[in-house]
Amino acid sequence: MKILVCTDGSGQSQRVIEKAAQIAAGGNVEVTVIHVYETSKNGPYRIEGNETLSEELNRQLIELKEQEKEKSKKVLSEAAKALEKKNINVKTLLKEGRAAETIVRVAAENEFDIVVLGSRGLSGLKKMFLGSVSNAVLHEIKASVLIVK
């Protein structure tokens, strides 16, 4: 069985990791942890008549994107370590893009049997029952989905 475990670094992600570990404890399970981060598609910026300011804005944009990527690597690494402590072999995937679309695409391309994710993540907007990512994944994916509360 192939399991895709989705993490965003939220407190709920810890429960997702625990549930995935319970499933994987049955043996003969391939576990992959994925973290998807979004960065701004804006830029490069050009301010007419002020090349210095344009260069500075673009430099800061690149720096922010790199900081987000490094933060995302840490989130992914911590999730993988939590599973490895339970003697579970883990593969990791770090992807840039829109979370729901990327999870659905990766699950299909790699033929995962089950996708494990939280009902809500770091989003400031709460849906009535499910977060926007879990809701979109649930309705778009062909694999089985386990949503952890």
Strand composition percent: 15-25%
Number of strands: 5
Give the terminus-to-terminus CA distance: 23 Å
Element order: H for helix, E for strand: EHEHEHEHE
Described by its quaternary structure, the protein is single chain
What percent of residues adopt helix (DSSP H or I)? 40-55%
The CATH superfamily label reads HUPs
Note poorly predicted spans: 122-130
Say what the CATH topology is.
Answer: Rossmann fold
* Name of the CATH class: Alpha Beta
Largest sheet, if any? Answer: 5 strands, parallel
Question: Which key features would you list for this structure?
Answer:
149 residues, alpha/beta, Rossmann fold, 4 helices, 46% helix, cytoplasm
Please provide a written account of the structure.
The protein has a single domain (2-39, 69-148), classed as 3-Layer(aba) Sandwich (Rossmann fold). The chain has a five-stranded parallel beta sheet with strand order 3-2-1-4-5, with helices on both faces. The chain has 149 residues and is α/β, with parallel strands linked by helices. It has helices at residues 11-24, 51-84, 99-109, 132-140, and strands at 2-6, 30-37, 90-96, 114-118, 144-148. It is elongated and about 65 Å long. It has four helices and five strands. α1 links the parallel β1 (2-6) and β2 (30-37). Residues 47-96 form a coiled coil.
